[in-house]
Amino acid sequence: MNFGDVLAQALPLTILFATPYLFAALGEVFVQRSGVLNLGVEGMMLMGAFTAIYAVSSKGMGADPVVGLLIAAGVGGLMGLAMAFVSVTLQAEQGISGIGFTLFGLGLSSLLFKLLAGGVITAQGFQPIHIPFLSDIPVIGKILFQQNILVYLAFALVPILMWVLNRTKWGLQIRAVGQNPAAADSMGVNVALVRYATVIFGGIMAGIAGASLSIAATPIFQENMTEGRGFIAVALVYFGGWSPFRVMLGALLFSIANNLQIWAQILNVEIAGSTIPPNLLIMVPYILTIAVLVFTRQRKQNEPAALTKPFQRGEN
Amino acid sequence: MKKVLLVVMLLALLSVGIVSAQDKPFKVAVVMPSSTTDLAWSQSIYDALVTIQTEMGGEEAMEIAYTENMFDVTAAAQALRDYAEEGYDLVIAHGTQYGTSLFELASDYPDTSFAWGTAEDTGEDEGLTNIFAYQADAEQGGYVNGVMAAMFSETGTIGIVGPVPAGDALLYINGFIQGVNATNPDADVLLAYTGGFGDTAAAAEVAQTQIAAGADVLTGSAQQVVGAIEAVKAVDGFWFGTQSDQSLNWSENVVASQVYDWVPTLEDMIANIQYGELGGTAYTLTLENGGLTFAYGEVEVPDEIKDAAQAAIDSIIAGDIVVRQSLVEEATPEATVAS
């Protein structure tokens, strides 16, 4: 197989497996632009992943995948509400409380999995939708237009969220609250309300991200199945300089690097006459992420000045 | 008067102690890296314990305690120590990674019996007499699965979803590749590792990539393979399993599974402990001693493939086929001496 053939096969999976990162990272962009760091994404994804598949699986409620998706979004939103209460109202240290929510989500999803499912749980999730005509285009059709509905939704959200963030009054309020909450407050913006809204939105997106794994990309649940994807999503927000578009590019880059390293393994790609150890190849996407993070430090102009700083009127 | 009362009370306590010692159930504790329902490594030992418990007469005869998902070795060491402290008769560390802490524990609790695997070191060199070791010659069943997979594949392309290149997963994979190559030297074997044991989505992505590259028959090891089997099911492909019977959930896709049967091993350990031997034996599951068995699903297997599998099993038991644990040709004894 030449590289073109490999790429044609790798890209559909790249886009499919970029989707969970994209949902979670898009939500986190809004959270961070309002000045809150949510490290609980991982736990919210796990809860979303479990509740979604439990709703859909015949072992559970046997509901339609759409119901599973809504439940995952609702559970994520509830966890977001709790995170907002802790970080905005109680003004707890955000990094630590976020990790707390991750551990909580890991523990609770494992417990519910044991109590309710008992063992490996599978489901008939969202199936690929072949978009008429477009899906028949050679190569491109398979890459872009034979995906499940959540993939289309995630990528459609990118321009919508860019518009909301940069062109609407809501977006302006979010950015103002993240840059200078005291100034926003004096202009009559309810800082706490804006932050509650973004953190809840981030939770909803993380819940959907979990569902996009468990009832779309791979319709199965195992304990701790997200395996750090929530933290990669948080890294992608920095990587993408808090811009939804560049976050999307980051998710795609990470995902394609990961898929190409699988190809390098199965094709026994050689460098200087010897095959590369698999352990080294598996690290490639992570090394790439760190490298890009280091080399894009100048993108910091979007970094919210009030990130991780709780707001108390009269003190900031 | 007070002294008499004290003596009577002590005697009473002692007699209660003796009576309960006779009725006391045999207590087994196991610390495992994943869950009792992982359809793989951890489930294989748990299922065996439950089988023995039923044979011995239920919970009154044998008590089973377990701690799951101990991927953190330090936490596992703590759990093992707690079980030893609580007076369990046999404490099992079900993972190679728990070895270091186990050796320390065994000298702290010389009256408790310990077991660990995948391992063959019973600590004899360090003067320990209360450790059993156990392992599976996974390459043997891997070879048999490889023979069947090579005959089952129509495209001649076979995928292997590995966790990390180590332990019994590596043995299985190496055996599998030898079986495929011996049966169809032209077959393409696509091997990729995920880098973890529990990442079902990564396993699914690897499997989907191998399927995109033309694989129609896949295999793999570790608890994450359920994600890969689900990917195989989506394209009506075939899967060969290992460690536990994986056909239960996917009977139409899982052709055969090599099953680790720890029952004879554990029974022997328990008998030894009751006899007063707390360790010192290393056990190995092989096709010959019945520790490795095969379970089939509902996939129709042509007779010639079944015959080939049986022939491979017979040849391995007879010693006509020697399945190497490594893919690298082993150095001859002379060469080893020379180096």
Topology:
The complex is a heterodimer of chains A (316) and B (339).
Chain A: H1 3-33, H2 41-56, H3 65-89, H4 94-117, E1 121-122, H5 140-144, H6 149-167, H7 169-179, H8 181-186, H9 191-217, E2 220-221, H10 229-239, H11 244-266, E3 270-271, E4 274-275, H12 278-295
Antiparallel strand pairs in A: 1-2, 3-4
Helix pairs in contact in A: 1-6, 1-9, 1-10, 1-11, 2-3, 2-4, 2-9, 2-10, 3-4, 3-9, 6-7, 7-9, 10-11, 11-12
Chain B: H1 2-23, E1 26-31, H2 41-56, E2 62-67, H3 73-85, E3 90-93, H4 99-108, E4 113-117, E5 131-136, H5 138-152, E6 157-162, H6 167-183, E7 188-193, H7 200-212, E8 217-220, H8 225-234, E9 238-243, E10 254-260, H9 263-275, E11 282-285, E12 292-296, H10 303-318, H11 333-338
Parallel strand pairs in B: 1-2, 1-3, 3-4, 4-5, 5-11, 6-7, 6-8, 8-9, 9-10
Antiparallel strand pairs in B: 10-12
Helix pairs in contact in B: 5-6, 5-10, 7-8
Description:
The complex is a heterodimer of chains A (316) and B (339). With 316 residues, chain A is mostly helical. Helix content of chain A is 68%, strand content 3%. Chain A has helices at 3-33, 41-56, 65-89, 94-117, 140-144, 149-167, 169-179, 181-186, 191-217, 229-239, 244-266, 278-295; strands spanning 121-122, 220-221, 270-271, 274-275. In chain A, the strands form two sheets. A two-stranded antiparallel ribbon of chain A has the order 1-2. In chain A, strands 3-4 form a two-stranded antiparallel ribbon. The termini of chain A are far apart. In chain A, 52% of the residues are buried. The model of chain A has no long low-confidence stretch (mean pLDDT 92). By secondary structure, chain B is an alpha/beta fold. In chain B, strands 2-1-3-4-5-11 form a six-stranded parallel sheet, sandwiched between helices. In chain B, strand 6, helix 6 (167-183) and strand 7 (188-193) form a beta-alpha-beta unit. In chain B, helix 5 (138-152) crosses helix 6 (167-183). The longest helix of chain B is centred in the first third of the chain and has 22 residues, at 2-23. The N and C termini of chain B lie far apart (81 Å). Chain A binds chain B through residues 1, 9-10, 12-13, 17, 20, 110, 114, 118-120, 122, 213, 217-227, 229, 258-259, 262-263, 265-267, 277-279, 282-283, and chain B through 34-35, 37-39, 69, 159, 162, 164-165, 190-196, 198-202, 204-206, 208-210, 212-213, 223-224, 226-227, 230-231, 249.
